[in-house]
Amino acid sequence: MKRTRHIYAILLSLVLFALMTFVFMNNIFHYYTPPEISIYENRYLARKPFWDINRADPYPRAFEDYYNDHFPYRLNLNDFNAGIINYRILHKSPYPNKVNIGKNNWLFFELERPLYQGDFMIDSVQVAAVVGEMHKRAEFFRKKGIKFYFISPPAKQELYPEFLPSRFYRCPTGTVTDKIMAKMKQDTTIPYIDLKQPLLEAKKRGKPLYYKTDTHWNSWGAYFGYIEVMKRMSRDFPSMKPLAESDFTMSYPVIKGKNLVEVMNLTNYISDEDVVINVKNSVTKTGKLHNYPKHPNSVFPGEYVRYTGDASKPRLMVISDSFVYSIMPFFDEGTSKTVYIYDTGFYGTNENIVDDVKPDMVLMIIYEPHLVNLIGIPN
Amino acid sequence: MLFNSLIFIYLFLPLSLLVYYLTNERYKNLILLLSSFIFFAWGGISYSFLLVLSTLINYTAGILLGKTTDKRKRKIILATGIVLNLFPLILFKYTGFFTETLNVLTSVFGIKPLTVAHFILPLGISFYSFKAITYLMSVHRNECPVQKNYIDLALFISIFPQVIAGPIDRYRNLEPQLRSREYSFELMASGIKRFVLGLGKKVLIANTLGIAVDEIFHRPPANLGMAVAWLGALAYTLQIYYDFSGYTDMAIGIGRMFGFNFIENFNFPYRSKNVKEFWQRWHMSLSNWLRDYLYLPLAYSTSRKLKEYKYMGIRADYIIYIIATAVTFTVCGFWHGAAWGFIVWGMLHGLFLVFEQLGLRKFLKHRIKLVQHAYLLLFISISWVVFRSANLDYALHYIGIMFGIHAAPAKWDIFMEFINPGFVAAFAIAVAGSTSLFEKVLGLSVRARDLQAKAIRGLSVHFFEISVILMILFIMAVSTLFILAGTNNSFIYFQF
């Protein structure tokens, strides 16, 4: 009996030791080569840090990031953990610190929750600073004789709170966005077009406005946003006529779950319904890119150019974030030329580009939680 | 570096073991000391000099103590050593708290508030400072000889399994082991089992419960609800036990892998029937430290001052007990953290120990066991609410909601959202593993346990041992999966 136990003690010691050495043995036997980019995490894997005695303190953290990222089969193991263990067996989000599963499988971005619940707050000086930044932009375009418009697509939880998990609550004293918008409305020089109420009205018509599995609006949401903008634009440019619902068709193919599903690494498990627009008799063509310098970190194209060739229509420049994609097909049709600039969350005036494009009007689209980016507070 | 990190389990530990066992017996302590310094430096290279300084101070103080027999000089050396050990602890851990408290008091008189630099708390400072004091006390009390080998003393203070979260081992326990240790595969295997068990307790149970606990204790009181408040309190009661005892299990397990036998720190504390018994089972290394180096000296010195049998109708021994307990548990609370919540938590424990001493324990003794356990668990859960809450005001509101004092709807819909299969499994295993409920439910009376033991003996030894190995591998694999999930660092927009 004693001898048997001794043998099993050796066996357990050897098995565990072999398992624990499995990772650094990879440096010798190279049985696993990690990719340079983790597609589902949307980032480069951490690189091996260089030892520098003058910057010793950050080294352990950086090395640990590198070591973790290059753990053999990390992506496959995380895939298994997310899909099988968490989603299938435990029926929960594998990364509740990033994405929450709400009612009817609607997904919500956890990092936007502090804004919604009021855990993320800025003081009145900072609120004034945000509005001041927008005021500067409005003044800049006014001085150049360019019509300027500004919209801020609401966060999904503002339009679909009924699908939020019950444990979410809206800040009873108002969110940062509420405070910024209230202040913004006091500044009559800022041509702010409020989309929240019109979108809530549109929601009553039963149209899906946002994706269940994405933070963004879909083509319907973008369309109703576009209509509100056009009400204002057509006052300044009567030649601009908004597209009517009869001018396009929508189809609803089933697709793999979108960005929130990707964050959870569950694209093989969760699907969504897309909203694909097809504009009837479209006259829009893709224009030649100007190759304006884009932010070095951006993986997205910095610009898109569309034109109809109809010189009677005004020229539009749109400075935006990713909320631009769904709204593009609508604006494309009503302008002579539209240049879309995606300046990776800076929402700058892009003066050089403005001077080059010479737009008649500029539309700025800032996703509601990103308003604080204007004063350099990342949210 | 944390025990439950990939870099520790899959790089540091196996490499340290490999180098350690390949090294000549003579240099094993040196290798372990270097490993410990690397381990500690991983949490902040700058702060590791503090640990080195602590080893040098205590080594010098020990040598000086050994050089004199003069009682007065020895007392001075001891006091200086203790002060030098406590100084960095007070500086780094408590300066902010003292300044804030002082500012609140002086603001009444319109005095401008003081501002001090914000210090980052060095890892494990509360543990290794207390450990170092045990060395000086042992030498001062002539319990152990002076350690003339710097490497051995430095290893005692900074040995990596204990340096972050204890147990606060006594010098007299480790001193013989620093001189020589025995190695066997049996000890190694038992260390592995203990380490993996602790890893599972921390990663699979405590962290799973922690997700719900963090969210519940983050909710404003108005959005809590009675059901959710109770869920949070009970889940935290289990989380803190599994978190801490899991970490201790890992420390003890690692110690065994290197041939050490560390002291135990937990002994099923939630099976206690009163607060006194709880402290004999919970964080035993700390409670014994406080008993030996604070409570008993305090009680002794107080007793020398009280000459009468009674004071204002109260027996002198009760007064001694009250004073010593109050001070000890206030310090105990303060040791846990520099905030009023921790102090009140400690004082609450002290208060109930006094109540028990004054008659509550006698009263409970005559009640059925269920009542005794219910008393203890109710008290402990409430005290943990004070411990976990962001501030005292929140804790009071929270407890008020638990007992219906602050009217709030039960919020069953929110409650149900926390009850996912993973949480339920972790909660159920945690309850089963920390109380005697599991044995009671299965009807495992003493006789049944005997029968079970016979049955196990009747089973093939091979079957039993293989099952244990498979179970260890299973816990290790699932824990690794859970830790790996923490390395997911997805960006919704971009991070290229």
Can you describe what's shown?
The complex is a heterodimer of chains A (379) and B (496). The model of chain A has no long low-confidence stretch (mean pLDDT 90). In chain A, strand 3 and strand 4 form a beta hairpin. Chain A has 13 helices and 15 strands. Chain A starts with a helix and ends in a 14-residue tail after the last strand. In chain B, helix 1 runs antiparallel to helix 2 and helix 10 crosses helix 16. Chain B is mainly α. Chain B is globular, with a radius of gyration of 25 Å. Chain B has a two-stranded antiparallel ribbon.
In short, what is this structure?
The complex is a heterodimer of chains A (379) and B (496). With 379 residues, chain A is α/β, with parallel strands linked by helices.
What is the H/E order of chain A? HHEEHHEEHHEHHEHHEEHEEEEEHEHE
How many H/I helical runs of chain B? 21
Mean pLDDT of chain B: 89
Uncertain ranges of chain B: none
Distance between the termini of chain A: 63 Å
- Describe the oligomeric state of these chains in a short phrase: heterodimer
Uncertain residue segments of chain A: none
Shape of chain B: globular
- What percent of residues of chain A are in strands? 5-15%
Biggest β-sheet description of chain B: 2 strands, antiparallel
Q: Which pair of chains forms the biggest interface, and how many residues does each contribute?
A: A-B, 73 and 66 residues
Q: Which class of secondary structure composition applies to the elements of chain B?
A: mainly alpha
DSSP summary, beta strand count of chain A: 15
What helical percentage do the residues of chain B reach? over 70%
Task: Let me know the number of strands of chain B.
Answer: 2
Largest sheet of chain A: 7 strands, mixed
Please work out how many helical segments of chain A DSSP would assign. Answer: 13
List SSEs of chain B in N-to-C order: HHHHHHHHHHHHEEHHHHHHHHH
Output the strand order for the largest sheet of chain A: 6-5-15-13-14-12-11
Strand order of the largest sheet of chain B: 1-2
Shape of chain A: elongated
